[in-house]
Amino acid sequence: LSNMDLAVMFPVQTLYFYRCTNGDASSTTHVVQTMRAALERLLVHYYFMAGRLRWNQEECRLEVDCNNTGMLFAGASSELRLDEMGDISLPDTVFTNLVVCVVPSGLNGLIDLPLASLQITRFQCGGFALGLSMNHALLDGISAAQFLLNFAAYVRGEDLVIIPKPDRTSLRARS
Fold it and tell me: Can you give the pLDDT at residue 62?
């Protein structure tokens, strides 16, 4: 992790709602399985998101251990219809139930926790919510958008839109 990354060591949560546009609720029956399979493929390119933070004794700093421990994934279903959620364009504390987030307790709490999580919640109407939580040190806003573009491409069965370049050695502090 660069010095800049160490300054932004906190979870960022985003939530996206998708309506069932064709009126057939059964058309999204397999959305959780489809997205899980797409995520598994995508993590090959975003391998660092499946790692954990470790304390490097020699350098006295946190670093990402790319140990393939995994990203937290949750599939859920709701008895509600998406239109029963109210105005989804406005923040609502109820929405926290749609994002899996592991909250650390202090610096030691960061160690061994998943650095990212994805929750897919399918509603009775066929609509669904995609809740993403990730440590900001992994991806900034542009990188997170690129991750989601690539994820969407894999969900559709397409190739990567943007090839990720996770090498951050140029961002390391120099003496």
Answer: 79
The answer to whether 116 touches 132, Cβ cutoff 8 Å, is yes
* Strand duo 128-135 + 116-122: pairing: antiparallel
Task: Read off the pTM.
Answer: 0.85
On the question of pLDDT at 171 being above 60, the answer is: no
Residue 2 and residue 170: Cα distance in Å, rounded?
A: 9
Q: Is 147 helix (H, G, I), strand (E, B) or coil?
A: helix
What is the β-pairing status of strands 52-56 and 128-135? Answer: unpaired
Tell me which residue of 26, 32, 16 sits closest to 133, measured CA to CA: 16
| HSE toward the beta carbon, residue 21, CA cutoff 13 A | 2
Tokens 């909250």 correspond to 103
Maximum Cα interatomic distance, the chain, rounded to a whole number of Å: 61
Nearest-10 crossing angle of helices 141-155, 31-42? 120
